[in-house]
Specification:
This protein has 8 helices and 7 strands. The protein has 203 residues and is of the alpha/beta class. It folds into 2 domains: 166 residues, Alpha-Beta Barrel (Aconitase, domain 4); 29 residues, no CATH class. It has a 7-stranded mixed sheet.
């Protein structure tokens, strides 16, 4: 998992609430167990026309939002099924930060396992961010995880909450597998002791 560092990026605006995981990554694309390769299908039914061409009316297809790493969305993002493919698609597309007032619990937890920071804003804070982007599409925000702060050119940033354990894992780039690998020496010691005490189990 990629370490999450302080960064400045274009903030893309998607004024949609209750975006479910079937819209984030439609079911017909859930054919792989690898985390990569899903970004091309992110928001597929909204991004593309029936003939496969880009839908000019879809927000993220705007040239101003190209290469954005921050996604600003409406309430209750990531609701619906618990498919982890949803954060896989978001991360593979290029986003590492989402800002909303609320998230579905399973989606929220899965974000942290995939190097995505889901920032929770108040309704007032989110409205100001959306207005700032709408007034200046292509504007960049700064996300400082260490100091738990979002900074914007118009001064609409704020301090955000994050669990200390999750914060540390994001900064270090550790997912569940990475956390386990940090204990390799202890695991090896346990297995050696177990083999010595119960040799018949290793015959």
């Amino acid at each position: 998992m990629e370490p999450y560092n302080k960064h400045q990026s274009i903030a893309a605006l998607m004024r949609r609430s209750n975006v479910d995981t079937d819209q984030i990554i439609p079911k017909q694309f859930l054919k792989k167990v690898e985390r990569s390769g899903f970004g091309i299908h992110l928001f597929h039914d909204w991004r593309f026309n029936e003939d496969g061409s880009d839908n000019a009316d879809f927000e993220l297809n705007k040239a101003e939002f190209k290469d954005a790493k921050i996604l600003v969305v409406g309430d209750n993002f990531g609701c619906g099924s618990s498919r982890e493919h949803a954060p896989w698609a978001i991360e593979d597309y290029g986003f590492n930060t989402i800002i909303s007032t609320s998230y579905a619990d399973i989606f929220y937890n899965n974000c942290f396992k995939n190097s995505i920071l889901p920032i929770i804003a108040t309704k007032e804070q989110l409205a100001k961010l959306m207005d700032e982007i709408a007034a200046n599409e292509g504007v960049s925000f700064t996300v400082d995880v260490e100091n738990q702060e979002l900074i914007t050119p118009a001064g609409n940033g704020f301090k955000f909450e994050i669990d200390p354990f999750r914060k540390d894992n994001l900064i270090k780039g550790l997912d569940d597998i990475g956390l386990t690998l940090e204990q390799t020496d202890s695991i090896d010691q346990y297995e050696a002791k177990h083999k010595q005490n119960f040799p018949w189990l290793w015959a």
